[in-house]
């Protein structure tokens, strides 16, 4: 592998990892508050078509990202109303949201299948982008790639160093205790769910605006489920979520690199590689259930009844 091809592989890894990284950070916020959101796949699909449609009609990526975030937040708010106020089953409600989002995005996206986005802007960091190897590997990315890294670091600081972050963690660990201290547990959980939904929406919009700038039905292709698995892989820590996202992105891009190098392996096996790697990692982690139990929010997936 030449230096140029390695730089391109690193760049592609960061690009691919941003999609699942953004979504996984959103789901981590949900789960830190005690809410399991199995609707990430559906939210990302609806956000992808919303972002793509906004990009087509306005010619602006940023309006596309705003539309994607709004779509994700809206669906998350609907889920929050069901599971937080009506106390519906979190797992069933999340699966229903995924099914709804899959169908809605397919219906809305019919007329956008053949459309193309306007001319894409080219992003690079001046001076640094001209560096050999490091320039094309690290400094020629869309701003959302760098924003995801900053978001992971900021979320780590927020959860560990701020009062609001500690309250969020307390709600996820013991909502009854937080309620007894006067904190509005339901509103905190709803805010966390909506914020996480907005990040999933940004991930979906990034997918259709930057990663693969087009709309194809079902284009999320399981990345919402991978993002959900990453939260467990990372033991609910933002920095580890980002590391897992880049590992997944690297394995995903490696398959294309191997195909380009003429490696004689059936394409179906290479396509399976990132998902197989995720399963293997989860199996290895599950061999130590005590470790997961210690790090997992204690009230994850459990309803909260203020009057109980």
Automatic annotation (TrEMBL):
The chain crosses the membrane at residues 6-28, 35-56, 62-84, 91-110, 143-160, 190-209, 215-234, 241-257, 269-286. It is found in: Cell membrane. GO terms for molecular function: transmembrane transporter activity. InterPro entries: ABC_transp_permease (IPR001851). It is a multi-pass membrane protein. One of its GO terms (cellular component) is plasma membrane. Keywords: Cell membrane, Membrane, Transmembrane, Transmembrane helix. Its main location: membrane. Pfam families: BPD_transp_2. This is ABC transporter permease. It comes from Aquabacterium lacunae. The lineage of its organism: Bacteria, Pseudomonadati, Pseudomonadota, Betaproteobacteria, Burkholderiales.
């Amino acid at each position: 592998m030449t230096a140029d091809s390695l730089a391109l592989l690193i760049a592609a890894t960061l690009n691919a990892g941003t999609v699942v990284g953004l979504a996984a950070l959103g789901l981590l916020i949900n789960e830190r508050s005690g809410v399991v959101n199995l609707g990430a796949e559906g939210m990302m699909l609806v956000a992808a078509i919303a972002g793509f449609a906004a990009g087509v009609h306005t010619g602006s990526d940023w309006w596309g990202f705003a539309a994607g975030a709004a779509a994700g937040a809206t669906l998350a708010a609907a889920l929050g109303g069901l599971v937080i106020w009506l106390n519906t089953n979190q797992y069933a409600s999340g699966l229903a949201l995924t099914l709804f989002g899959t169908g809605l995005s397919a219906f809305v996206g019919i007329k956008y299948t053949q459309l193309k986005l306007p001319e894409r802007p080219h992003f690079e960091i001046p001076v640094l982008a001209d560096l050999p190897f490091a320039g094309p590997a690290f400094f020629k990315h869309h701003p959302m790639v760098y924003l995801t890294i900053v978001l992971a670091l900021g979320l780590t600081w927020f959860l560990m160093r701020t009062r609001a972050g500690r309250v969020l963690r307390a709600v996820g660990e013991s909502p009854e205790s937080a309620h007894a201290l006067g904190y509005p547990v339901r509103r905190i959980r709803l805010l966390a769910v909506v914020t996480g939904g907005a990040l999933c929406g940004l991930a979906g919009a990034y997918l259709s605006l930057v990663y693969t700038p087009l709309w194809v039905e079902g284009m999320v292709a399981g990345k919402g489920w991978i993002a959900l698995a990453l939260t467990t892989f990372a033991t609910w820590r933002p920095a580890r979520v980002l590391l897992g996202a880049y590992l997944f992105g690297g394995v995903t891009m490696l398959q294309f690199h191997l195909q380009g190098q003429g490696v004689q392996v059936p394409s179906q096996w290479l396509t399976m590689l990132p998902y197989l790697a995720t399963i293997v990692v989860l199996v290895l982690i599950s061999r130590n259930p005590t470790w997961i139990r210690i790090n997992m929010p204690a009230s994850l997936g459990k309803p909260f009844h203020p009057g109980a």
